[in-house]
Amino acid sequence: MQISFIIPHKGRFEMLIQTIVSIAKQNVDLSQVEVIVVSQTPDVLNQTLSGSAKLLIKPHLRPENETISALRNFGVTQSSGQYLAFLDADVYLSENWGEQMQRILTQNPKRIIASAMQICTFDAPPLEKIRTSLSNAELDVNVAFLPGRNLFLRREAFAKIGGFPEHLITCEDYYFTDKAAQLGELFYTSSATYIHLGEDKTLKGMFDKEIWRGQSNLQSIEGRHIPLREWPSFVVPPAIFLFIVTSFICLFAGLYSLAICSLLIGLIPVMAYSIRLQNINELPVSFCQIFLFYSVYFPARAIGTFVGLFKSIRVRNS
């Protein structure tokens, strides 16, 4: 077997089907492709997952308490491909994805993981355009880390990395690709693309998801060196959140000058990040929409970080 696609899954069968359909349209020999679906949804064994009669699909059911890392690692044990392709269950690949990922890896022996660029749907709302632009801040270069939505690597490389960190609920892709970067290059290419079908469409949806995503922020830095460029992502969200909370406390206490000062200080990083993103990419969205995005994103990340911290303390004290 040449390529093993490994897809962790829970709910939303319609997006999983679209992901499988995009695999069935790959410009590769489908007889050399297998799809390992590792699901936590009981109905997965009764669902019709076929995207093509030529596509070999192997569904597996796993306990709901297992992390996404555990699902991916289990998928590897059930696979036989020379290459491992880790996908989320809500992505739609370009038809040249498989062939381009192989080309990227064979082109340079130093490369250990390849990943394709994200593109928007034709009717994407402003939030999806912003998230996509953030994903594509660096293109056709080696990067420090890669999101777990589409990762392509050799089986022996996965073994050297040591698998995904099963103790993390989120941020497992940062942890995994950070370890991979110590062994070789991570290359983010524009020669192939994918659509993130499950991308955040509304600020409320993003707020809820970022709280969930942020809960493993602190755990993900344990046991690894954190480069200077990563520190703002850990420090800035809690700082902004604390200044905003302080502003409200001062407002209710009648300390109006302090409330305004605290709010302005908290909004300085929001303004800086908004200007930076607008300058990096010519987004077809207004500056106000970018500013609103960061005004929601940073507090949500901070809340998620605090939630994760409290959970960690509770576990250690139990």
TrEMBL record:
Q: Which Pfam families match?
A: Glycos_transf_2
Name under which the protein is recorded: Glycosyltransferase
Keywords in alphabetical order, please. Membrane, Transferase, Transmembrane, Transmembrane helix
Keyword Hydrolase listed? The answer is no
Source organism's superkingdom? Bacteria
Q: Enumerate the transmembrane spans.
A: 239-270, 290-310
InterPro entries linked to this entry: Glyco_trans_2-like, Nucleotide-diphossugar_trans
Can you provide one Gene Ontology molecular function annotated for this UniProt record?
hexosyltransferase activity
Q: Which organism is it from?
A: Paraglaciecola polaris LMG 21857
Residue span, Glycosyltransferase 2-like domain = 4-161
